[in-house]
Design goal:
Layout lengths: L6 E5 L4 H12 L3 E6 L2 H8 L5 E5 L5 H15 L4 E4 L14 H29 L2 E6 L12 H21 L4 E7 L15 H10 L7 H14 L3 E3 L12
Parallel strand pairs: 1-2, 1-4, 2-3, 4-5, 5-6, 6-7
Helix pairs in contact: 1-7, 3-4, 4-5
């Protein structure tokens, strides 16, 4: 798919990978629909370009998703790309995982991407074309103590993406999965639980951390190529990246 003039909807667009991808897409000539709960942040980003629309959206809420899609279509007339980027971490040993927190994590990291996909698929079918990018995690390519809740939610997203790619191929809709490595963003400061463990892990991988801009560049490349899966994870940590 050609990035220029495409309409790209990005969840979690207020910071980190989502914000970097939005900026890169605008620079490449796309029109961008920015979704996030922190409206002030996406408003500030939208003010930098006439090709950006900011919509406050909690992606775990069906009515807010419906509103965001409706506003996006009203402004731009189509949605060519969905980037499911919104997500959160949770660090705890298996015996200490709070089940209520785990359910909320699954809601955001797994159920919400499905709801977003279901919201844009009808429009993409009508267009006979579309691209869906699900942002997973390189942590699903290996095993790390305390990561069971988070990696389980993202591993579910991996399978959802793989099957959706098969289900939607005949409609001209491409579904791809991105596996970022540790990224210099607010992710580790906003985990649902296990802040101390998250901070330690962030420090341990700091020397290897990627910038959000590098991940954004990869996401845009995958929109263009339509590849099924791309990872930015070093081989030593279960991925295919040679640095």
């Amino acid at each position: 798919m050609n990035i220029r003039d495409s309409v790209i909807m990005i969840t979690g667009a207020s910071s980190g990978i989502g914000e970097a991808t939005a900026r890169a897409a605008l620079q490449a000539g796309s029109r961008v629909i920015l979704l996030a709960r922190r409206k002030q942040r996406i408003d500030a980003l939208a003010e930098t370009s006439v090709n950006a629309l900011a919509v406050a959206c909690d992606v775990t809420q069906a009515d807010e998703i419906e509103n965001a899609v409706r506003q996006g279509l009203a402004r731009f007339g189509r949605i060519d790309v969905l980037i499911n980027n919104a997500g959160q971490g949770l660090f705890a040993s298996v015996e200490e995982i709070d089940t209520a927190a785990f359910r909320a994590l699954l809601d955001l990291n797994l159920i919400a991407p499905l709801m977003m996909m279901q919201a844009v698929i009808p429009q993409m079918r009508e267009q006979s074309a579309g691209s869906i990018i699900n942002v997973s995690s390189g942590a699903t390519l290996a095993t790390y103590p305390g990561s069971a809740a988070y990696t389980s939610s993202k591993a579910g997203l991996n399978m959802l993406s793989d099957v959706a790619r098969l289900d939607l191929a005949d409609a001209g809709i491409t579904v791809s999965t991105i596996y970022p490595f540790v990224t210099a963003s607010e992710f580790y400061q906003s985990v649902k639980s296990g802040q101390e463990v998250a901070t330690e892990q962030s420090a341990a991988f700091a020397a290897f951390a990627h910038t959000p801009e590098r991940v954004a560049e990869t996401i845009l490349a995958v929109i263009t190529s339509g590849e099924a899966q791309v990872d930015l994870v070093p081989r030593a940590y279960g991925g295919s990246d040679d640095g």
